[in-house]
Specification:
Elements lengths: L4 H10 L3 E4 L2 E3 L9 H9 L5 E2 L1 H8 L9 E5 L11 E5 L7 E4 L2 E4 L1 H10 L4 H14 L3 H8 L5 H13 L4
Parallel strand pairs: 4-5
Antiparallel strand pairs: 1-2, 3-4, 6-7
Helix pairs in contact: 3-4, 4-5, 4-7, 5-7, 6-7
């Protein structure tokens, strides 16, 4: 925001600002949001990081995913080294696959399901997430089928298995 280091220190020392991280502050009276940690990591990623994979599943409340690390997708050109507790996935996401959500960017439910299908998420968890997503949006099944090949044959196979096991095919 253009504050000098001395001005940042002044406001932090006086209690006008609470230090969250290096160069990141919050106002003391500002309410803490449910996903403040994800806003923080979005800022760490210079607003190029997108919450994705298992973390996005949890935010979208699909299945019972409770990841131990925060998953972020960043552009291939992103060069910062992630701190402990952050898992970076590199790739360029189309704008249609991203939503703005409570101050951070997150993959859409469709893209989230495709990402976890291409990964190592337990098949039972994938089935539960797919079933819930299809219950909420009936067009999700057809969208999953049509986009599965985009992420490769392994993801397409896991999408088909998940839909079949979930009784959606």
């Amino acid at each position: 925001m253009g504050y000098s280091y001395s001005a940042q220190k002044f406001h932090a020392d006086r209690g006008n600002w609470l230090r969250v991280d290096r160069g990141l502050f919050r106002l003391p009276e500002w309410p803490v949001g449910t996903h403040d940690d994800l806003v923080r990591w979005s800022l760490w990623g210079r607003n190029r990081a997108v919450v994705s994979h298992e973390t996005a599943l949890a935010v979208h409340e699909l299945g019972d995913s409770n990841p131990t690390v925060i998953h972020l997708t960043v552009p291939a050109s992103f060069r910062s080294r992630p701190p402990d507790g952050i898992r970076l996935h590199r790739g360029d996401l189309p704008d249609d696959d991203i939503w703005l959500y409570e101050g951070f960017r997150i993959t859409t439910p469709l893209r989230t399901l495709l990402d976890v299908a291409a990964g190592t998420l337990d098949l039972d968890q994938l089935v539960d997430a797919m079933r819930q997503a299809c219950d909420r949006a009936p067009a999700m099944r057809d969208a999953l089928i049509s986009r599965a090949e985009d992420l490769g044959p392994g993801a397409a196979l896991r999408v088909e298995r998940g839909l079949r096991l979930g009784g959606l095919l």
